Amino acid sequence: MATGSYAATPIGDVVKNRDAYANQIVTIEGTVTEKSLGYKSDAAYDLRGSDDYSITVVGKGAAPTPGTKLSVTGKVGRKPPDEEFDFPPVIVESIRVAQ
Asked: What dihedral do alpha carbons 78, 88, 20, 47 form, nearest 10°?
């Protein structure tokens, strides 16, 4: 099965339009920040785009090293806001490619 390629969506677009992107598959590009951790076979890290916005990515496998440039495709997770907090979106990673 061939994998399709997606045009990269700016991270800032996903962060600013979180409801519009909820449950959508997107590809984002950026650099892994210092917030990168792994536990067993799970990873969570922040990716900062060229537009200076950051988003948290969760996935399987080893956590990427801070400073690594990545292209990530995944589903935008979005918890609806409650009366006190508007939760930020996260990317549930399905594909991670070093650039």
From this structure: -100
H helix count then E strand count, the chain: 2, 5
Q: What is the pLDDT of residue 2?
A: 43
Contact criterion met (CB below 8 Å) for 58 and 73: no
Question: Considering the domain boundaries, does residue 49 fall inside one?
Answer: yes
Residue 71 belongs to a domain: yes
pLDDT, one tens digit per residue, over 18-68 is 999 999 999 999 999 999 988 888 999 999 999 999 999 999 999 999 999
Domains of the chain: total: 1
